[in-house]
Design brief:
By secondary structure, this protein is α/β, with parallel strands linked by helices. Among the domains are: 6-179, no CATH class; 217-286 and 546-607, P-loop containing nucleotide triphosphate hydrolases (Rossmann fold, 3-Layer(aba) Sandwich); 465-533, no CATH class; 610-747, 3-Layer(aba) Sandwich (Rossmann fold), CATH 3.40.50. Helix content is 43%, strand content 16%. The chain has 30 helices and 21 strands. A hairpin with a 2-residue loop joins strand 5 and strand 6 (158-166). It is globular, with a radius of gyration of 31 Å. Bound molecules: adenosine-5'-triphosphate. Residues 183, 186-187, 198, 201-203, 206, 222, 224-230, 577, 611-612, 706, 708, 736 line the site of adenosine-5'-triphosphate. Keywords: ATP-binding, Helicase, Hydrolase, Nucleotide-binding.
Amino acid sequence: MSTTTNDLVEAEIAAEQEHVDRVYAELAKAAQRAELVHAEGMQRGQTDRRGTGDPREEELAGLFERDALVYSASKRRASLEHQHEGLVFGRLDLEHTGGGPAAGREIRYVGRLGVRDDDYEPLVVDWRAPAAAPFYRATPVDPQGVIRRRVLRCQGERVVGVEDDLMVADPPEDIVVVGDGALMAALTRSRGTRMRDIVATIQQHQDEAIRAPARGVTEITGGPGTGKTVVALHRAAYLLYSDRRRYEGGGVLVVGPSAAYTAYIERVLPSLGEDSVVLRSLGDVVAGMTATRLDPPATAAVKGSLRIRQLLARLSREPIPDAPTQLRVFVGGHAVRLTEEHLRRARSQVLRHHHRNTSYDAAVDALAALAWEQVQHGERAEFVDRFTDSSDVEAFVRQWWRPVDPREVLLWLADEQLVRRLGVVSADEARLLAESYQRALEDGEWTVADVALVDDLHARLGPVVDLPSEERGFYEIEELDDASQYGVAAIRLGSEGAARPAGPVLDEDGNPVAVAVEATASQRLSRDPRTRLLAGRLGGAEEYAHVLVDEAQDLSPMQWRMLGRRGRWASWTVVGDLAQASWDDLEESARAREEAFGSNVRRSFHMDTNYRNAREIFDHAAAVIQEHVPDADIPRAVRETGHLPEELTCAPEGVVEAAREAVDDLLGEVDGSVAIIAPAAWREQLSGLEALADRVLVIDPLSTKGLEYDATLVVDPDEIVAESPGGVRALYVVLTRAAHRMTVLRPVDGARA
Ligand SMILES: Nc1ncnc2c1ncn2[C@@H]1O[C@H](COP(=O)(O)OP(=O)(O)OP(=O)(O)O)[C@@H](O)[C@H]1O
């Protein structure tokens, strides 16, 4: 084994550069061929399986060949350049023992996609291919034929560094060993504002979770910073690779707690060459709705619990508040008068067998039957025909039984009397619910918890079906008025799906005019809160082949049901840590979650190494949580910086100044992001500190779930505990967000300003 001097390192880098240059040259050729081979390549990638089971080796081999044909090569290359991360990131030096043609040394490069040369020899194997597995699985105890594992650090096409790990105690003379290990190098780097992929430094236990069989439910648990999220995302990329037809065709849904979270992770999958995954926060799982506001804990508890289903069931059977309450018509010379009680009977009869929004005909039939009971004269069939054909009856039913948008129905709960009448919840809870929807009607914003309730109502009511344009409901006429100022001449009301026109909309001369998509935009811009709440087309539950749920410990039972509707035939990856939970009734949540998973097989992986926090920071956080949750899942932090978290106090009136000084210090100590995590009571006052530098941001405790920063300033920890639904668990989340430095600032009455 040789020692490493600068010259040697340079020589090693130059040698690697030669290979990387060959790979890019081959890739450029492949890109030129791409259009020609596209059809053939995709063909080879299709396997005959019916889309269940896991891929067989030979099927995987077919997929790797397709990568050599790389229809998407140029696209991927562009995205890799954009990332400034290298296409080739690893090299294995292997020794094959025993006889046979394969005996001897082999050099194998590992990268984000597979590339072969003109002789069909692999220049790089895709990190997801079985041939790449030893890169992640080899250890000194079980080297799997690997002598040296090397990580190449690249910027675009340039090799800028190498880091080696030796797998054998006594390597051959010519094996040079460089660096202190790639993992430590990656962990000490500054983090930036987006999560990066870890494809070059995936650890053995992480790799097992990533490559676990596709079927069933794969659970990934572990404490903060143990790589659960990043592992789950690599698993999604692996599944797409290993059974592309199933997962790209059926769709992969990734759900996380907040919009800040989805923005944070959104680059990981594209950097691995996958851009077909749907990322959603809990506030926008239902197409057509976007919610970011959170309810106060007591209201969230009512909205999230399964008890609310019974209330929604009753609500969905309520008459439309402004609908007519009796029917008076002449049919075939006979006067018919159906009272409120008759209408109630007809309604419950129809709803016994039908979805409300798709039972127009059944509603007419039920009224006809009641009318016949009154008339009992002549032929029944003839009377029923006349009744059904009557334009007065039609006009009545179109108001009395018009399709209702689930969002409109949920807003009926703004009426406290109605909520009380429905029963199910206590008087206090009825008040909380009514206040919540009164507030929605004032400010035009849904809360995150409302999204799952709308989804539940949607499943009960059925899709909102089209009405002819002259039969719009009252709020839709408001939309029309509002849209006219944006040049929209007509709006069609559609049934399902996102804001898509039901067909071309024509003006009087038959020319196409602006369509519903623009109308939706105008609705969102509207100053009328009700119009904003009802803007856009509500989508039904789109089904996916795989559902990945992050921060799963926070989902309410109603949110589990919402995801369950989207994953009825799916396999699942579920990521969580109970000690970070912000939902109180963990047992009820567990039941709803079991129901969502059905009878799928389960497998579970536990992560016990914290890669995020410096040990000094994590020790501080662990002490806080263990005092309140003694059985919290505490991981082992692998990295020390020698810097303990700084704990400061200040007078309440001096918080902004003290925070400014603390942030200034942190900016001097780290290159990357600095987050000021503060409870609502302080956020506004502190928001001016964002002007200190581009890399400073002020954020609320809950929005930091799943995120990380190079340094954090945690302001007023006691208030964070007091204001958060999860109490000390929320503080634990906050205290585990910093990679390198953390300062805790505590306002104390009587302290020096
Ligand atoms: N093998 C690895 N190589 C390099 N970095 C890693 C590795 N594993 C994890 N990390 C890094 O550790 C950090 C924490 O990972 P991640 O956010 O996935 O953890 P988590 O368990 O989901 O955390 P939390 O539960 O606190 O949200 C990330 O910056 C991630 O990139």
